[in-house]
Design goal:
One of its GO terms (cellular component) is mitochondrial outer membrane. It comes from Cyprinus carpio carpio. This is carnitine O-palmitoyltransferase. It catalyses: (R)-carnitine + hexadecanoyl-CoA = O-hexadecanoyl-(R)-carnitine + CoA. By secondary structure, the protein is of the alpha+beta class. The chain is about 45% helix and about 10% strand. It is built from 22 helices and 18 strands. The strands form four sheets. Strands 11-5-4-8-9-10-1-16 form an eight-stranded mixed β-sheet, with helices on both faces. It starts with a helix and ends in a 6-residue tail after the last helix.
Length: about 725
């Protein structure tokens, strides 16, 4: 999703001396010493005086290691993902049974970490073949021949040399991609993280559990702390890597002049709160006890009622986190390294998370709900550019009318991790904690609670430069959010198609109608089947999808278009499976490029590949805990999902969430400064493409829709 913005044309500050024989020796030496220390620790654990007891411990340790090894071998099998529904092979059935037998019935969050396989390094040949296949429909004959020639030259010369370094890294590193991805795609970027990298999540579409701002904040904060205390994961047959969860709370991205740093602290017992230009520290624990939702509401109300004005420079201080990174790093070093400013900044950065009590009202409301939804999205994406702390792992926003949402920093984790947190928060708020009849939180109040602490500042600097950069970026963003109500995954699955493939093909059709051409398309896929896995790119614009779109637009007969549609959907599913199982294209090429920069060698092929723009960047927000939402009895509690800013200056960002059986919510973004893009126009193209695809699959659908006009959005 937003990561695609950082993955295009990024710049390195690595010298040719970044890797040489001496450094390689040092790295190998450190790996050896690390392993030696590890074995010393293991041996020390079994040092006991009784020889019989020692023998029991050794046997237990061997059994444990054997169990982990067997489970790791089982989890390295991924052919199950490529088998058709209802046609599962005997081999896969046996495999699934063995996984269940060896898996814990109540696994802890990190129970499976050491059993997950390492991400494999694909062969150079396979990656290049898949790459050339992906760009063939996007290039003319001469352009494709040129890229084919560059790829062949790369494979014969530099490619194999770079591949050796990657394979060596894969041997000693837990994941050959993730650390470089985090550093070079995220932390080394010097442009604003607001809009370009951070993303947002929304509240329920149709309902707001309470209109009392302090009460909604009380339940939301409580639910988030309850999530932090969770130590177990939902029961799933296939374990996923949980490493990204480690830095969810108490984490801040701190700016540096050349590269930022992710800092994570021990669990803190307070949150940082912003309201009308003032910053507060709000303790949510007292003598080891988590305050009740009603007590947190009481404390939040104290902040809302506080009449004190902001200190000079305090109100727009957050703009420093919204502008370019290097100026923020320089100001942080000069003005926030000691004294009262450092103490107050520490309170924000070490807080569990950040909370903004917004004085605006947002949501799908009023006489023009569509326009208000778009404004709601922009508010969560960038706010006023100074009333969010964009460096925090996530910032919760609670509006005056009780609506809420969040803004998440991207480097520490990907959207599915934050989506899991936010699903739990919304469900716990509405269905578990609940409210009294008058809209207040439940629970008792200890009135002797000390009031929230105002943070003090001595700010001689001006933030006007950072604010100007951020404001220009925010003003340029064009957002459109709309619920597609005509049908959802239920009808798509009846047509025996993958809902995600269906939506991706609709996006291809919509883009072609909007721009008259095809483009490189980014769809985010996860690689959490592997240890410390993050994401891989699915190149959704394929030969098959382009052939289908061209045939449909040329008015070819329905049966032919129908076959091409199904062929394109099958291709997309296969591309998605390859990406999830470690056989994607882009992370491999990215790492080869990093190695080439370390070695100080130029590759015309890699340079061109890594500078190609993603004019259509897409991401599905997964619904992971449907059991928390009783949509049968409470169909109005539907999440809007979330979105992100545009990736290319002349392109679109599209996020979508498939909610229940009958709705798909879309978030579209682009830039006003580009005369060729328009989020509302593209949203209409998406809706029409969805309708046209369903009509192609089921001609009776169009007549049924005409007979039920209330279904139209």
């Amino acid at each position: 999703m937003a990561e695609a913005h950082q993955a295009v044309a990024f710049q390195f500050t690595i010298t040719p001396e970044g890797i040489d024989l001496h450094l390689s020796y040092q790295a190998l030496s450190q790996i050896y010493l690390s392993g030696l220390r590890s074995w010393k620790k293991r041996i020390s654990r079994i040092k006991v005086s009784d020889s019989n007891e020692c023998e029991k411990i050794i046997i237990s340790h061997v059994i444990h290691r054997t169990h982990k090894f067997c489970l790791k071998l089982l989890l390295s099998y991924h052919r199950w993902m490529f088998e058709l529904h209802g046609r599962i092979s005997t081999k896969t059935k046996v495999w699934a049974t063995l996984v269940r037998l060896l898996s814990s019935r109540k696994p802890l969050l990190y129970s499976y970490q050491t059993s997950l396989p390492h991400l494999p390094v694909p062969s150079i040949k396979d990656t290049l073949e898949r790459y050339l296949e992906s760009v063939k429909p996007l290039l003319d004959v001469d352009g494709f021949q040129r890229m084919t020639r560059l790829a062949a030259e790369f494979e014969k010369s530099l490619g194999n040399r770079l591949q050796k370094y990657l394979k060596l890294k894969a041997l000693w590193a837990t994941n050959y991609v993730s650390d470089w991805w985090e550093e070079y795609v995220y932390l080394r970027s010097r442009s604003p993280i607001m809009v370009n990298s951070n993303y947002y999540g929304m509240d329920f579409l149709y309902v707001t559990p309470t209109s009392t701002q302090a009460a909604r904040a009380g339940n939301t904060i409580t639910a988030l702390f309850l999530y932090r205390r969770k130590s177990r994961i939902p029961g799933t047959v296939i374990p996923l890597c949980a490493a990204q969860c480690e830095r969810m709370f108490n984490t801040t991205r701190t700016p540096g002049e050349e590269t930022d740093v992710l800092q994570h602290w021990q669990d803190s017992e307070f949150v940082a709160v912003y309201h009308r230009g003032r910053y507060f520290r709000l303790w949510v624990y007292r003598a080891g006890r988590l305050l009740s939702p009603r007590e947190i509401q009481y404390q939040i109300q104290r902040i809302l009622d506080d009449p004190s004005p902001p200190s000079p420079g305090e109100d727009k201080l957050g703009a420093l986190t919204a502008g370019n990174r290097t100026p923020w790093a320089q100001m942080r070093k000069q003005f926030f390294s000691s004294g009262v400013n450092k103490r107050s900044l520490d309170c924000i950065e070490k807080a569990a998370f950040f909370v903004t009590l917004d004085d605006q009202e947002e949501g799908m409301m009023g006489e023009n709900p569509s326009v208000n939804l778009d404004r709601y999205a922009k508010s969560l994406l960038h706010g006023k550019c100074y009333d969010r702390w964009f460096d925090k792992s996530f910032s919760v926003v609670v509006y005056k009318n009780g609506k809420n949402g969040l803004n998440a920093e991207h480097s520490w984790a990907d959207a599915p991790i934050v989506a899991h947190l936010w699903e739990f928060t919304l469900a716990t708020d509405a269905f578990h904690l609940g409210y009294t009849a008058d809209g207040n939180c439940k629970g008792e109040i200890e009135h002797s609670l000390p009031p929230p602490q105002r943070l003090s500042w001595d700010i001689p600097l001006q933030v006007s430069e950072s604010l100007a950069v951020a404001q220009a970026l925010a003003d340029d963003v064009d957002c459109h959010v709309f619920p597609f109500r005509e049908f959802g995954k239920g009808r798509i699955k009846k047509m025996k198609l993958s809902p995600d493939s269906f939506v991706q093909l609709a996006l291809q059709l919509a883009y072609y109608r909007d721009r008259g051409t095809f483009c490189l398309t980014y769809e985010a896929s996860m690689t959490r089947l592997f240890r410390e896995g993050r994401t891989e790119t699915v190149r959704s614009s394929s030969n098959e999808s382009c052939a289908f779109v061209l045939a449909l637009e040329a008015g070819e007969d329905r049966e032919h278009c129908h076959k091409l549609l199904r062929k394109a959907a099958e291709k997309h599913q296969n591309l998605y499976r390859l990406a999830m199982t470690g056989s994607g294209i882009d992370r491999h090429l990215f790492c080869l490029y990093v190695v080439s920069k370390y070695l100080g060698v130029e590759s015309p092929f890699l340079k061109e590949v890594l500078s190609e723009p993603w004019r259509l960047s897409t991401s599905q927000t997964p619904v992971q805990q449907m059991e928390l939402f009783d949509l049968v009895n409470h169909p109005e509690f539907i999440s809007l999902g979330g979105g992100f800013g545009p990736v290319a200056d002349d392109g679109y960002g599209v996020s979508y969430i498939i909610m229940g059986e009958e709705m798909i919510n879309f978030h579209v973004s682009c830039k006003h400064s580009c005369t060729e893009t328009d989020s509302h126009k593209f949203g209409s193209q998406i809706s029409q493409a969805m309708m046209d695809l369903m009509t192609l699959l089921n001609p009776d659908f169009k007549e049924a829709t005409k007979a039920n006009p209330d279904k139209q959005s």
